[in-house]
Specification:
The protein is mainly α. The chain has 20 helices and four strands. Strands 1-2 form a two-stranded antiparallel sheet. The chain has a two-stranded antiparallel sheet with strand order 3-4. Helix 1 packs antiparallel against helix 3. The longest helix is centred in the N-terminal third of the chain and has 24 residues. It is elongated, with a radius of gyration of 26 Å.
Length: 399
């Protein structure tokens, strides 16, 4: 870190703020000047120039010139981390219990600070979701369900159990590889296991195969197309998050800590609308949404029911929920407000083109058919469903 700027501006590559651009330009000139002086044998540095020169006292002149060309800006995360600490109070205990049951180190509880700032509803631009930022394909491999009604990656408990299954498998695979490497017992396996969560177990197996079981050797010597800054910094970011969380009182005096998450859990026997559930269990829709982040937008807009078998989470009730559950189960099944009908995809069809032709919302059609989970493209308007596949479209009942 060369300098810290206190500003409301963001580190944007497309429209870099003048303040940041000028600071980077000045640093480039200062580093180049240090390299020029070192070349002539001049080591008389003062002030901020001395501070920069001391950072490179053991580096070559070419390294300094290279550094001058690779200055980047990174935004601070103090406010984000403070909020994450509060959410850790809500979900941390549950994560720790899950890790203990799985025989995993409880320090893994600090990884969601790096992944999502402990936000159960976090989404990334590449499609990862939830507190553990699990990709759709990985989710299904780990036993999580994703549909237009429910995305179990957004359920903190289910996602944590899935993440634990990943770490168990990664530890087994990497451990088997390490046992075949001479001197591997001198090194910890967990830097590889943690990094595999970002880079993949297969990637770390290739790294171990080429470089060995010394993680620092892998960082310094392994070369691969995907093994770059983000991956190399992943374990260090985890260690930093762990350090700050353990010493939270020193870094964030008086920070808020939420109570651990507690809930009554009710298994839905018959598909039901959120309106019915809110009425039966005497809770408002916002509370239902807070306790059940895995329910998708189509459920909240009434286009889908909460499915049969879903484990609905509710605020703890003093007298329990048995009477309310009996009342719910005695009710007649609800009629859907919307009627779905199939559409067979033709050559040249796009998602939004079909939606316009059928007079329905493009966004709803994509969500209804999970297209964003199956296909990737620069824009939802360019999504091309498979030729001949059957899409479901929806109109309000009677329309």
């Amino acid at each position: 870190i060369y300098r810290v700027l206190t500003t409301e501006k963001n580190c944007s590559r497309r429209r870099e703020p003048r303040l940041i651009k000028n600071a980077k330009s000045k640093l480039r000139k200062q580093l180049s000047a240090i390299a020029d002086k070192r070349k002539t044998g001049n080591t008389n540095f003062t002030g901020f120039e001395k501070h920069l020169a001391d950072m490179f006292r053991n580096d070559s002149i070419s390294d300094i010139r290279k550094a001058a060309k690779s200055i980047r800006c990174q935004g601070g995360v103090a406010d984000q981390y403070r909020s994450a600490l509060k959410r850790h109070g809500t979900y941390g205990q549950m994560v720790v219990e899950t890790l203990k049951k799985s025989g995993l180190p409880t320090d893994i509880q600090y990884l969601p600070f790096v992944e999502s700032s402990y936000r159960p509803t976090a989404y990334s631009r590449v499609g990862a979701a939830g507190m553990w930022q699990i990709m759709p394909r990985t989710a299904r491999t780990l036993g999580l369900k994703i549909s237009s009604s429910v995305d179990e990656r957004l359920d903190p408990e289910l996602a944590s159990a899935a993440a634990a299954r990943y770490f168990i498998d990664s530890r087994k695979r990497l451990g088997e590889k390490a046992r075949g490497i001479k001197g591997a017992s001198r090194h910890s396996l967990y830097p590889f296991v943690i990094t595999s969560y970002n880079y993949g177990a297969a990637g770390m197996l290739r790294a171990m195969d080429k470089v060995g079981a010394d993680y620092m050797d892998v960082l310094n010597k392994y070369r691969a197309r995907g093994f770059r800054v983000a991956v190399k910094n992943f374990y260090a970011s985890f260690l930093a998050a762990r350090h700050v969380a353990i010493n939270a009182d020193a870094y964030f005096p008086g920070h808020a800590v939420a109570r651990p998450f507690e809930a009554d859990v009710v298994t839905i026997r018959t598909p039901a609308s959120v309106e019915r559930l809110a009425s039966v269990f005497d809770v408002n829709k916002d509370t239902l949404k807070e306790y059940n982040p895995s329910l998708m937008r189509l459920v909240w807009t009434g286009r889908r029911f909460v499915p049969k078998g879903y484990k609905l989470k509710l605020p703890k009730a003093v007298d329990g929920r048995s009477r309310q559950v009996a009342n719910l189960n005695s009710m007649k099944a609800e009629e859907p407000k919307y009627v779905e009908y199939p559409y067979r995809v033709k050559r040249g069809d796009t998602a939004c083109g079909i939606a316009r032709k059928e007079g329905v919302s493009c966004r709803e059609l994509i969500a209804l058919n999970n297209l964003c989970l199956l296909y990737t493209s620069p824009s939802p308007r360019d999504l091309n469903p498979n030729l001949g596949c059957r899409l479901m479209l929806v109109n309000r009942g009677g329309g």
